[in-house]
Amino acid sequence: MSSNFSVPLKAIWSDYRNTLTMNVLPGEHTVETTVGKLGKSMYKHVSREFSLQSLELGTIDMPARYYPDVDPSTMLRDCGHSGLTVVFTPDPQTQDLIKTELARNAQGPQTYVQPNTTSTASSSSTANPPQVTMDSQLKEMLASMQASMQTQMEEMRVKHENIRVLNDMAFKEIKTVRNENERILKENGSMHNKIERILKENGSMHNKIESMGNQNERILKENERILKENERILKENGSMHNKIESMGNQIESMRHENERISTKNDSLHLDNERIHSELASVRKDLEAARNQHTEDVEALRILTLSLVPLHLRVLLDRARGRILEHLGHESWEGLRSTRSIHQLANEIFNSLKTNRVSYSPSYKAIYFLCSYNNIRRAGNAAAHTAKEEEVRHAVQTQPLDSQDREYLENLFRYAYDGNEV
């Protein structure tokens, strides 16, 4: 994916003047590839600063450390706007190489001061020629560079450590404040719920008091109504007495009717007993018929199982007949001749495959057909009259997970032109 922001980069070699800063578009580069390119730029920069014209970049090794500490396979865009700082630390071999180059560049033709030939004899002594050397300067320069690099690395480490500590403290403070805010919000919510509950209870109590006042008024009115109702009931009691006498007469009439209905129920009970007796006889006959049907079904199943070997023999003979037709032989004995079962199976399988016969059986099925198996032993000459559906049913009686079932299904498709069991 493309990015529309640039990542700031900083490369530090040993001192301030050898610090490179730049902004690059991250693209699809990883930190490792970016550091490699940044290292080449640093090598050229160092060579130019120290005038190391003959320094071969491919021969020096300066390990790099990343700030912040990221995995080399990390994508550069993941560094974000905070950027990436790379510190290159030259190893001893690189330091010796740079030292040698600096010494070589520093050495020139030695200059000697000739003695003054016009001086007097008393001043005829000659001065020693000065010799220019860069060893001390080189050592001071390397020491200064190492000290500067270590100081910068230490400052960066302290800075990153302080930032990490501040971040941790800020994170903890934020977490504490967030927890406190959550607790206050929960307490406020709880107080709000309590206040609402109290207000609802007060409203409920007020409603109850009003309800009780209304109920008392209603009770008073109800008492007045009951009093009037009692007076009316007393007046009606006289009328009710006459009605009760009338109801007594009706009850006596109903008692006589109940006696008549009881007599009718006794007659119906006798009829029910007779019907139950007849139903018991019918159930007995039905049970006998059911037992006879079960015996007939079992006999039919035994008869069907006895026909299975015959139908399977039909399938084997029909498959052999199809093979004789496809291979052009008159009899199975003529086809077999002196061949062994293995040779015969190979011959049939290869011939069917060569002739591209439709629904050709597998090698194992052909081997099963050529061998004298239990299915052939159980057959007899009457099996040749079985129909296709009878043969299919015979194959279906074999266990699904047996090899015989697999071979028989294979031979069935071959013998009946691809029809499935």
UniProtKB/TrEMBL annotation:
Comp. bias regions, Polar residues: 107-116
Stretches the record annotates as Disordered: 105-132
Keyword terms: Coiled coil
Compositionally biased intervals (Low complexity): 117-127
Coiled-coil stretches: 209-303
InterPro entries hit by this protein: GOLGA6L
Family per similarity comment: Belongs to the GOLGA6 family.
Protein name: Uncharacterized protein
Classification of source organism: Eukaryota, Fungi, Dikarya, Basidiomycota, Agaricomycotina
